[in-house]
Amino acid sequence: MTTSPLPQPPVPVKERTFALSKELFRYKPGLFAFNLFMWGMVHASPALLTLAVSGVFRALEQADGLKTGGQPINPAIAAAWVSVAWFAFVRLSRFGIFYGAFRAWIELWYTLDALVRRNLLSYLLTARRSRRLPDTPAEAVSRFRDDVEDVAGYTEVWVDGAGFVLYSVVAITLMARVDPLITALVCTPLLLMVVFVQRLSPTIRTYRRRMREATARVTDFIGETFGAVSAVKLAAREDGMVTHLRALGETRRHAALRDVLLTELIRGVNTNMVNLAVGLVLLLGANKVRGGTLDVADFVLFIGLLPRLTGSMGFFGDAIARHRRTGVSYDRMTRLLQDAPDTTIVEHHDAYLNREAPAAPPAPTAIPLRELRVDGLTALHPSGLGVHDASFSVARGEFVVVTGRIGSGKSTLLRAVLGLIPTQSGTVSWNGETQDDPASFLVPPRSAYTAQLPNLFSDTLRENITSGADEAHLNRAVQLAVLEPDLHALSGGLDTPVGARGVKLSGGQIQRAAVARMLARPADLLVFDDVSSALDARTEAQLWQGLAQTDATCLVVSHRRAALLRADRILLMENGRITDEGTLPDLLERSGEMRALWAEQDA
Amino acid sequence: MLGTYLGPLRWQVAALAALLLTGTGLNLLLPQLLQQFVDNAKQGAGADVAGLVRLAGLYILLAVGVQLMTAGATYVGARVGWTATNRLRADLMAHLLSLDMREHKERTPGEMIERIDGDVTALSNFFSQFAVRVFGAALLLTGALVMFFREDWRIGLGVTVFTGVTLTAMNRVRKLGVEPTRLEREASARLFGFVEERLAGLEDVRSLGAGGHHLRRFLDVQRNFFTRSINSWRRRSVVWQLSMALFAVGYVGVLGAAVGLYASGAITLGTAFLLYQYMTLVEEPIDQLTQQLQDLQKAGASLGRVSELLALRSAVRGGKTPLPAGPLPLAFRDVTFSYAPEDPQARGVLRRVSFDLPAGQTVGLLGRTGSGKTTLTRLISRLYDATQGEILLGGVNVQATPLHDLRSRVAVVTQDVQLFQASVRDNLSFFDPHVTDAQVEAALHEVGLSTWLARLPDGVRTPLPTGSLSAGEAQLLAFARVMLRDPSLIILDEPSSRLDPATEALLTAAMTRLLSGRTAIIIAHRLDTVARADRILVLGDGEVLEDGRRDDLARDPRSHYAALLRAGQLNEHEGVLA
Predict the structure, then answer these.
(1) Is the predicted ipTM greater than 0.90, yes or no?
(2) B48-60: per-residue pLDDT in tens?
(3) Three-state DSSP state, A335
(4) For A406, nearest residue in chain B (alpha carbons)
(5) Domain of B71?
(6) Whole-prediction pTM
(7) To the nearest whole angstrom, how far is the Cα of A547 from the nearest Cα of chain B?
């Protein structure tokens, strides 16, 4: 039986980020290695450029010396031209390398992006057990967008990092060869800076988190407003909604500005370190110049190498921050997947980026229903409401109705049986066999379900109804769901696009399309959650009559006489418990609650 | 557009300009200090150490100054950007909300998020950085060119030509990226729209065992996004590649010129070094300009879409004539409506509908599903406009009165209740701060949600527990929304469809109170819902089958209503009509 997700054992975030990212790097090992190599060259080549420029000035300085000595300067000038040619060569090859490196990086980045998104959605759509989103769908989408981008973009830290390390080693060696003391003195503030940035990174995280939360509130609100656009318009409350957006935007602006300020502070420290370092070289060099131990060419070398060295240090500081941010993104994804192991996010699967994906796996095998049995089922919402200790059974061919007042737990009961929400205790068994994962088991061809407020997707009506099933049962489904008259009214018939969440259809049409969708695949047990509420009397009667002619077993939530009169058995719910069970005449005789529910219908 | 949104921020923009100008000036001074240092240092033993130290100190001081200016400019720039784009977001949302429903049916909420936030954020980067980066870079570039001319007019000319060629070439090339970028953003909107819809319908997908199918569809959508993104990055990267190639030429040129001029004795070693340093001052701003061209591309594409949206005009526009006070009579005159008026094949949903509803009376609207009942009510509050004919409310054509007036006087409770992730009070008041908590509480009591309210830990300020809300409770909340207003015409679209009879009884009293003294239309499948109506209107296939006083129709054995009543009683035992 499904149990509520256990809290994840605390995995050290640092280790996990490394471990998970390593899996990502291994997804396309060749491409990753190629990226490392190419970007290593892209980042290290500026050291060679500076060396060439320094060579130019060394030659010119020699020429200066020759000129003062009254000798011909031609050999020195020739040496200078050789250095210029060397400079030109490195510059041009760097261009070629960058071209390849960039293409390789884009390919890697978007491939990893796609893999992580595929893994998230795949788990939510197809994994075992109940799935509930911890947040709104709009908020969950930002896991797919922003957090995925963070996680895939983290690869950049490693790809670039290798290049920056290479550059730093080359640069420090070159400088130390000229003057180890100045090199040491200049590098110290750079190291201090890394420490400084690292110190600030928790603050950065807080600011980023606030910024992202503020952004999520803005996007959520926009999504909800347009999800409910007709309600807003009908209530003439457009102004209020815009005012609220302004308030949310203002909060976000404050969060964003704090973030900018801190980032600028860090960047300022970075840049000032270069200038401070150059200034230090000037200061320390001033004395050495007189001794002749430091010449203009060395000086050019230092000034040429320092900015990128500082840049590298800044990069390392930022890398630590990005590492932590990636940890946060992994956290949030794990929270979205709830009971999934961490590694689900980075599992290796084909993301089918260059060819069409194969057909979805076939439906599970049919196990003809003899009896569905529910024992001691308890499913509570966090608020404490829900279903307590429910037991009942449905035999093949039966029409069982669940009834009760609003909030008595009828829908919750159905959803708990189907494993759509987590349950705390109890069992569901099929033909006497206990199912520990009803969510995966109770699907067509065993059972099919239509929710009280079904969701359609922006596609054609046909695609919505078949949803991957073959079209063999399409006509029968459309007939049984009494959707045929609607098809005549719709301009494109089955090929009419239904719009976002089916907005182009009326409430009743959405409901009937959802019933057709459920009937388009063969299923032994049909579970309806108050599906008749958007149907008129005759349409509803047609639906029940049509179903009666099949050998379907039905479990139906309803409070209407049409269903109650047809019921072989009625389960009466009060305050989350099944308080009585029996035929309509029996219940009317012995249950006051049943009489109350029934009597209200006499106008 | 820039003017509209930056105009009110002109003082901040001025501060920004001042910071940038000062910063650029200082930045141009720095290489001069280096030149002096080099020319001084090459004298070796004869160098003036005190002078060198002074130069070094000055260098550090100026460098820090430059940094402070840049940081200040970035901050002010971001401030300007966020303030301006927040306004744009609000205006865009207000505009989009004002569009008619035909427009909304074409777009998913996910797409709206992408338009209002995604695109505008791309613009925000542009707004906030345009001034700092582009303006700052242009200043620095000009300054550096002037400095080249001061050293040697031939080099100055050469570098100026180089800059001109580079910028022109890059500007040409960048246009390559605009269309792929647009396609990429389109694919991204579709991708996230797809994900959002599937997440919202997770239970539908999973309970039908259709997860595998939807995953496969997702992979298709994602493949399209992948291909377009890669293509768009490649096209955009041509700009950088070109810049790298051109700069290779530029640096080699300047370095070569420096060597050549030195060999001919025209310049000193220090000046040769200065020329090389100034080249970095040219490279930086051109790099910046190029990068900003990227953002400019994105912003250009976004601006295109935003302007497209802003240019959309609602086909449903309000007029000027005010509605009279008090309960309003309603009249339909030969009203015909089709969702696709441009398609002559499509049958109208309503055909030549005419009827009168006197002020203060209630009409029960009956008819089979799909007979046009809901559509009829949508025309009154003008979610759609009649294709032909006119609708008069209080004697005024609904198209002649301001939309806001019309919709605040007409209250509608629909079949599906749309709720927000927000507090109970915000859900009922649509985020209107003028509505007091007490009013919200009173409305909840009136619709019979007192016990429900009592269970909420923070009363009406509790976030609405949408997950554990039953559809019936949601329906009651929709009633409470109407209780908060004082409408003249009330439309109840299957008001009790989701209520169990016991709960419905709670509501009946409140409904009676709400409807008294007001004109009302009640759509119902169940006859008992309209048992108290003054009039009955039966629709069939878009046409009026019957219209009259309920009592008269009930007495007339040949009427549809009487037939329905008989059928209702007759079929009660067979369970056809509940």
Answers:
(1) no
(2) 778 888 888 888 8
(3) helix
(4) B472
(5) 2-311
(6) 0.75
(7) 14
